[in-house]
Design goal:
Neutral Protease, domain 2, 2 domains, Nuclear Transport Factor 2, Chain: A, about 20% strand
Length: about 450
Amino acid sequence: MRVRTWAAVVSLCVALASCGASSDGTQSTAPETIAPPSATAVEQMGGQSITYDDTQRLSKTYTKLLRTKDRNGFLATFAPAATGARKQMGQWFDNLQRLDATSLSLSFIKATRARDSSGTENLAADMGLILQIPGVDPVPLSEWYSFTFAPKTSKGELKVLSVKGASADRSTGEKYSRYYRQAWDDGPMAVVRGKRAVLIGPAADAPWMRANLARFDAGVKSQVNRVAKAGIELPAGAATRSWLFTIQSPSVKDVFDYLGGKVDRTEAHFAGFTQAMYAADAESGVFDRGRVATSRIVIAREAMNDPGLDGTIRHEMTHAVEQSWQGESDRAPAWIVEGLAVFLQQPSTAEVVFRTRSGLAYLRKAKTMPDRDFYEGNDEAVGSHYGAGYLGVAYLADRMGEKKLLTTIRELENTSAPLEEVFGMDEMQIAKGAIAWAS
C-alpha cells in the first residue's frame, strides 16, 4: 500500500530530461479543512492573550488596508524596531498590487506560539492571505503566513515583529494549502500576462519572461487540447482560463521552497513542479480539500535556458490538467502520474531512447513498477524511475489507445477501486508487459 503524503497534489519535474512528479517523499501531508477560531481567548503567553476581539480587529484592519492599497497604514502595524520585516512586507504589499487580485484580504486562522533566539515566547498567529487572480483562479485561494507580535502596547494593540510563510511538516501537526513562499514573497516581482499563461518572477527576469511567453502559451494550449481530444470534460473554466507559472528567484536555493516543501534524501535536480491549490472561503480563509481549484507551476532557474524548456512546460501542464479532474484525493501511483506526463510532453527521440534504456534497466531488476521511493536518489536513480513510469504508460497506451488510457487514469483517480481492477493487471504484470513491449 502506498503511503500518501502531500504528494497527492504536488508534481515535480526532474531537470535530467524534462520530467515531473507527484512527490511521495515529503515531510508534510495534504491540506485538510481547518476550523475557524473560537470566541474565547485562544493563546496565552506571559499573562497576555490573543482574544476573539483581537482576531476580528486584525482581519478587518488588514483587509481594509489591502483593498484600499494603503501601504503606509499597513506598515504602521509593524513594530518600529522591526525594520527587516517592514522592508520585506512593504515589497510584498507592492507585489500583491501588481497581481490586480480580487477578494484580497488577510484573515486570522489560529493562534500559535513563537520563540525568539533567546527562547522567549511571543504572541503569534497564522493569517490567511485570501486572493483570486483574475483569469487564473476560478475561486478565492488561501496562502497562509505566520505573524509574530511584540507584547501588547499599553493600549492593548498588537504590533508585528516578523512574518514568514506558514510551514507544514510533521512537527507542526497542521496541514496548510501553501507551504513556504510565492514570487510575491521574495523581492521585486514582475507579472507578464499572455493568452493562456501568466508568468510571475523576479523583476530582473521580466525581459526573459516576455521573450518566452509564447512558449508557455503554446504549452498550455497543447496539453489542454490533447486531453479535450480524448473526450475528457474538464471542470468549468479549466479548458479556457490561464495558468500561473512562477520563475524561481536566484535568492531561493531550492524550487521546493515554493509551495511544495521538501523531498527527503534526494540529490536529484528538478526543473519544476506543480501543486494543486484548494478553494477557500473568501472570508475565513478556511479551505476545502475536496475542491481542487487550480494549480501553481514553478519553473527552476536551471530550466529557463535549457533546450528542453518546451517539454518541461508541457510536462508540468499535463500535471496541472490532471490535477483539475482529481476527486478528493489522487489515487494514481507516482509512476502513472509521471509516466503520463513524460508520455504527453511529446518527448524528443533522444529522450525516448534515454527513457527506454533507463526504464528497462530498472524494470528488469525490480520486476514491478516504481512508486514508494520514486523521487529519492540521485539523477540517475530518479531518472530510471521516470523511465520505468514512461514505459509503463506507453505500453498501456499502445494496448488501450490514448483516449481509453486517459479516461481510465481519470477513473482511477476518482474511485476507491484498486489499480488491478481498473487496468485488469497488477503492477508486476504491467512491468512484465512493458519489458516485452519495449525490448
